[in-house]
Amino acid sequence: VFPVAQLPAEKAKQLRGLVMDLDDTVLDHGRLLPNALSAMYDAKQAGLSLLVATGRAAGWGEVLIRLLPLDGMITENGSVAFTCDSGGVHRHERVNSEQRRQRRIRLASLVSDLQATFPEARLADDVDLRYSDIAFDVGEHQRVPKEIVQQMRAFAEERGARTTVSSVHFHCSFEWDDKASGTLFFLSKQRQVDPSYALTRYAFVGDSSNDAAGFAAFRTSFAVANVRPYLSGLSIPPTYIATQERAAGFHEIIQELIEKRR
Ligand SMILES: [Mg+2]
């Protein structure tokens, strides 16, 4: 792991795009602050294509793709993506409505099993906006101890679910994609960007364990300083780390990228 100041200029110049996590990377305790928003416009101005890869609900994607300077929004940890053009907002999914319905039924029964076993299993406040997964609040409006989150994960995985944990949520799904595969699938299908090209020419920026796939897959990855407690749990750490946390760290990374691209 290197300080972001050590990013080589030639690497910065080669980049075509940036894939960003939202919570605790771009967002500061859930808020979009002026420095993070202006960093996005600066990055765009510097010729970078911007994508979001978040664990947040599809409903968030449908709204944010209209508001932010993004070329794509990948939500629910890789399973549901959005684009926006003059024809409006478009949703992109790999499963059809019948498969989706079956998975919702399996998820609902997993939720009742989890809630019958763990009193801490409280649904996140965005579950009604979700299409493909279920999220429990573990750090947003309540703090669930790490050991309990681990027990809930094991419980869900025994029942065939895939699980991910971010700084705010514990997710269960019956989907296959993660942030990296969902982003590469989106880029190849919707933007005609070859996956191996994307892995070297797009960089990933994140902050926690649900960004593990992004840190592992993309040749260049960045993290904001609040990644530190998660570093030991990541099989592949981010390449570069900012000195500052959250929005300030995101702003720092973008400024470094822009300066080195000049
Ligand atoms: Mg995050």
Question: Which features would summarize this protein structure in a list?
Answer:
single chain; 262 residues; 10 helices; 12 strands; globular
Structure description:
With 262 residues, the protein is α/β, with parallel strands linked by helices. The chain contains 10 helices and 12 strands. Helix 4 links the parallel strand 3 (49-53) and strand 4. The protein starts with a strand and ends with a helix. The mean pLDDT is 97. Magnesium ion binds next to helix 2.
Adjacency order of strands in the biggest sheet: 1-12-11-10-2-3-4-5-6
Number of helices: 10
Largest sheet: 9 strands, mixed
User: What gross morphology would you assign?
Assistant: globular
| Strand/helix succession | EHEHHEHEEEHEHEEHHEHEEH
> Structural class from helices and strands?
alpha/beta
Q: What's the layout of helices and strands?
A:
Blueprint: E1 2-3, H1 9-14, E2 17-20, H2 22-26, H3 34-45, E3 49-53, H4 58-67, E4 72-75, E5 80-85, E6 88-93, H5 97-117, E7 133-137, H6 146-158, E8 162-165, E9 169-173, H7 179-191, H8 195-201, E10 202-206, H9 212-217, E11 220-223, E12 240-241, H10 246-261
Parallel strand pairs: 1-12, 2-3, 2-10, 3-4, 10-11, 11-12
Antiparallel strand pairs: 4-5, 5-6, 7-9, 8-9
Helix pairs in contact: 3-10
The structure holds magnesium ion.
Magnesium ion binds next to helix 2.
